[in-house]
Amino acid sequence: MKSYDVKTDYKVKRKQKRLKNELSKETKLTIIRLLVSFILLLIGSSSLLPEPVNVGFFVVAYLVIGARIVYTAVKNIFHGEIFDENFLMSIATIGAIILGEYPEAIAVMLFYELGNVFEDVAVNRSKKSISALLEVKPAFATLKLDGKTKTVDPSEVKIGQIILVKPGEKIPLDGTVVLGQSSVDTSALTGESMPQNIKVGDQALSGSINQNGTLQIKVSKAYSDSTVAKILDLVQNASSKKADTEKFITKFAKIYTPIVVGLAAALAIVPPLVANGAWDVWIYRALIFLVISCPCALVISVPLSFFGGIGAASKQGILVKGSNYLEALNNVDTVAFDKTGTLTKGQFSVIQVTPANGVTKDELLQMAASVEKNSTHPIAVSILDAYTGKILPVENATEQAGHGLSAEVDGQEVIVGNAKAMTRAGVEFTEANAVGTIVYIAVAGKFWGDLVIADEPKKDAQEAIRLLNNRGIHKTVMLTGDNEKVGSAIADKLKMSAVYTNLLPENKVEIVDDLLHDSHSVNKKVAFVGDGINDTPVLATADIGFAMGGLGSDAAVEAADIVIMGDEPSKVARAMKIAKRTRQIVIQNISFALIIKILFLSLGALGMVNMWQAVFADVGVTIIAVLNAIRLQFINFDN
Asked: What are phi and psi of 427, to 5 degrees?
């Protein structure tokens, strides 16, 4: 095992810090070039200097501010990228210089670079909320070996080993607390500002910050499978899946730019040849046309708007895997929920024990707890919590999805499950009439009795449904494997529009397929919200899948399109609110840019716009659109 090198980590951090400083230096250099060029422009415009000297100042001013853009345009041409904004700016300004319009040429470059500065500031602002998540990455782990501690890289720690986490340190790996208690800050993971108290037996999530107590944690996942690693992967890949609007704008720019270059060439050539117009007048108009036509506002502001939306969602503890999913949320008209652990707490408790004749309550609980010992299902946990006696050894334990568990105890087959499991095994049993989850127990083909287990809705479950209704989602559906009495009771309490009960995982997929058919017939989409491994097929089937309750189920997170880090179903409505506001800003930017472009292009062709006004039509519109896009970072999305 490699030991962790503190010096190496320090060098890495210095390198990262230096990279950040280099980026800021680049912006500072641009600002310096802007100031120098502007001063030279003012000197060159002075009437006190002779004309050759003025021209010299103008040329130097142009080179200071425009040389980088011209160089980039030439380089891009050799790479097959001809019709970009650098090419348009270079042709327009060089043409203006040839015509002797030095101040206009310099002004175009000045304002274009000023627009780039605004863009850099806006992008950095949008990235802050996402890069904050990247800071949850732990730098080291303190491993306990043979009574001693050793600082190692988190990737070197194996499952089952014990790590020590002191106050103020990040928890580097997922695991179970085996010694100590503390408050942990999970805000970077879940968006929840209140510290969470954890003690022996509780789960500790990597990326959380230990606040006030020393913890010893038994590692349950390798670093590559840990919560923090999955968050980093989700965040870093979020921008790779583009929304349809982004794809359209990219295609639009590739078609639009060559067309406007052709129109500009026609504007420069056709009038002088056909109508004997003055060449310098029409070439000047063509150059103005080129400046105005640059599609910067669209190409920059639309992706930036979606990036801002994803960043705003991440600040709320909602990780969106791509802007395509953020855009798709605007078309959802049906939201289906899993019940246990999603709408309900998933913290079951045994509220009734009913043994059959000849069986005691203690014997019934002992048999159920023994079979359920190795299960992590909330029902199994509640049974184990209810029984504190001796656990019997079991063999050949198997689980049948949607039915229950079976195992051998002292050579006898024991079945612990629902009514379907009893019927399937041919066991004669008395069906319980109670509101709750009924667990039946059969031993050697004989009915031993039943347990009634109850679960309660989460604090904000009812609020989540209300908020969805307010957003126009009037079809809220609950899917559950529980019986009709339990499912209907929860659905009625939450005021949901429909509930389907007694479902196996494949039944949930069938129902979501039906919902998809109904929604797709009116060009709408279906979202599904679930939290367990059994929800994976449904998450993959729905148009948009929400993995609920953090990163508890790896399979659910893998299949989901959006991950809610906290335990609040109301964040589904919040994600939709962010998606709606993001779309509004995208539409505003596209509409504003196109209207101004078309207006100024028409005026430019008619000679009613000069180069200075053309600069506003390009750079001014871009700056306004960018500033509009970063508004997402300042909007309060609390419900």
From this structure: -90, 130
